[in-house]
Amino acid sequence: MIALLVGVPVSFGIAVFLTESGPVWLRRPLGTAIELLAGVPSLIHGISGPFIFVPLFARSVQPWRQSVFGAWLVVGGLVAGPPIGVSILAAGIVLALSCWLVSRAKARQGE
Fold first, then answer.
1. How many domains does the chain have?
2. Nearest to 98 by CA among 51, 31, 56, 41
3. Which residues contact 91 (CB under 8 A, 6 or more apart)?
4. What is d(CA 46, CA 97) in angstroms, rounded to the nearest whole number?
5. Is 80 exceeded by the pLDDT of residue 82?
6. Rounded Cα–Cα distance for residues 46 and 96 (Å)
7. I want to staple 7 with a disulfide (CB 3.0 to 4.6 A). Which of 28, 30, 57, 100 is the partner?
8. Which domain range does residue 83 map to?
9. Looking only at Cα atoms, what is the longest distance across the chain?
Protein backbone atom coordinates (compact mmCIF):
# COMPACT_ATOMS: atom_id res chain seq x y z
CA MET A 1 0.00 0.00 0.00
CA ILE A 2 2.86 2.38 0.81
CA ALA A 3 4.48 1.65 -2.55
CA LEU A 4 1.25 2.47 -4.37
CA LEU A 5 0.66 5.64 -2.36
CA VAL A 6 4.16 6.86 -3.21
CA GLY A 7 4.73 5.33 -6.65
CA VAL A 8 1.53 6.14 -8.51
CA PRO A 9 1.55 9.94 -7.95
CA VAL A 10 5.26 10.13 -8.77
CA SER A 11 4.72 8.10 -11.93
CA PHE A 12 1.84 10.29 -13.09
CA GLY A 13 3.82 13.42 -12.23
CA ILE A 14 6.76 12.29 -14.33
CA ALA A 15 4.47 11.33 -17.20
CA VAL A 16 2.75 14.74 -17.15
CA PHE A 17 6.07 16.54 -16.88
CA LEU A 18 7.60 14.65 -19.81
CA THR A 19 4.57 15.01 -22.07
CA GLU A 20 3.10 18.39 -21.18
CA SER A 21 5.17 20.80 -19.11
CA GLY A 22 8.78 19.75 -19.53
CA PRO A 23 11.08 21.55 -21.94
CA VAL A 24 11.45 19.84 -25.30
CA TRP A 25 15.21 19.49 -24.97
CA LEU A 26 14.82 17.58 -21.68
CA ARG A 27 12.02 15.20 -22.65
CA ARG A 28 14.01 12.70 -24.67
CA PRO A 29 17.12 12.34 -22.42
CA LEU A 30 15.06 12.14 -19.22
CA GLY A 31 12.64 9.64 -20.76
CA THR A 32 15.52 7.50 -21.96
CA ALA A 33 17.17 7.59 -18.52
CA ILE A 34 13.93 6.45 -16.88
CA GLU A 35 13.57 3.61 -19.38
CA LEU A 36 17.15 2.52 -18.68
CA LEU A 37 16.50 2.53 -14.92
CA ALA A 38 13.34 0.51 -15.49
CA GLY A 39 15.42 -2.08 -17.32
CA VAL A 40 17.55 -2.64 -14.24
CA PRO A 41 16.29 -5.73 -12.44
CA SER A 42 14.20 -5.34 -9.31
CA LEU A 43 16.92 -7.17 -7.39
CA ILE A 44 19.27 -4.23 -7.90
CA HIS A 45 16.56 -1.80 -6.75
CA GLY A 46 15.97 -4.02 -3.71
CA ILE A 47 19.67 -4.06 -2.84
CA SER A 48 19.63 -0.26 -2.79
CA GLY A 49 17.33 -0.45 0.24
CA PRO A 50 19.83 -1.70 2.84
CA PHE A 51 22.68 0.40 1.48
CA ILE A 52 20.92 3.71 0.75
CA PHE A 53 17.47 3.98 2.36
CA VAL A 54 18.10 2.21 5.68
CA PRO A 55 21.05 4.45 6.69
CA LEU A 56 19.11 7.50 5.50
CA PHE A 57 16.11 6.53 7.60
CA ALA A 58 18.30 5.76 10.63
CA ARG A 59 19.98 9.18 10.47
CA SER A 60 17.09 11.46 9.58
CA VAL A 61 13.58 10.03 9.30
CA GLN A 62 13.30 7.88 12.43
CA PRO A 63 14.76 10.44 14.88
CA TRP A 64 12.40 13.05 13.41
CA ARG A 65 9.39 10.71 13.77
CA GLN A 66 10.35 9.96 17.37
CA SER A 67 10.70 13.63 18.25
CA VAL A 68 7.36 14.56 16.65
CA PHE A 69 5.18 11.54 17.48
CA GLY A 70 6.97 10.12 20.54
CA ALA A 71 4.82 11.98 23.09
CA TRP A 72 1.51 10.84 21.57
CA LEU A 73 -0.28 8.17 23.54
CA VAL A 74 -0.94 5.49 20.91
CA VAL A 75 1.47 6.47 18.14
CA GLY A 76 4.40 6.95 20.54
CA GLY A 77 4.65 3.20 21.06
CA LEU A 78 4.81 2.60 17.31
CA VAL A 79 7.80 4.90 16.79
CA ALA A 80 9.67 4.04 20.00
CA GLY A 81 12.98 2.20 20.03
CA PRO A 82 16.43 2.69 18.63
CA PRO A 83 16.58 4.28 15.17
CA ILE A 84 18.10 1.42 13.15
CA GLY A 85 16.43 2.39 9.86
CA VAL A 86 14.73 -0.91 9.07
CA SER A 87 11.01 -0.21 8.72
CA ILE A 88 7.99 -0.90 6.59
CA LEU A 89 8.16 2.67 5.30
CA ALA A 90 11.71 2.14 3.99
CA ALA A 91 10.65 -1.10 2.30
CA GLY A 92 7.61 0.62 0.78
CA ILE A 93 9.75 3.39 -0.68
CA VAL A 94 12.19 0.91 -2.21
CA LEU A 95 9.27 -0.96 -3.77
CA ALA A 96 7.74 2.33 -4.94
CA LEU A 97 10.99 3.18 -6.74
CA SER A 98 10.78 -0.01 -8.74
CA CYS A 99 7.05 0.42 -9.37
CA TRP A 100 7.15 3.95 -10.68
CA LEU A 101 10.07 3.25 -12.98
CA VAL A 102 8.33 0.27 -14.54
CA SER A 103 4.93 1.97 -14.75
CA ARG A 104 6.46 5.05 -16.38
CA ALA A 105 8.26 2.89 -18.95
CA LYS A 106 5.01 1.04 -19.72
CA ALA A 107 3.13 4.33 -20.04
CA ARG A 108 5.70 5.60 -22.50
CA GLN A 109 5.18 2.52 -24.69
CA GLY A 110 1.55 3.54 -25.05
CA GLU A 111 2.39 7.11 -26.17
1. 1
2. 41
3. 2, 49
4. 9
5. yes
6. 10
7. 100
8. 2-109
9. 52
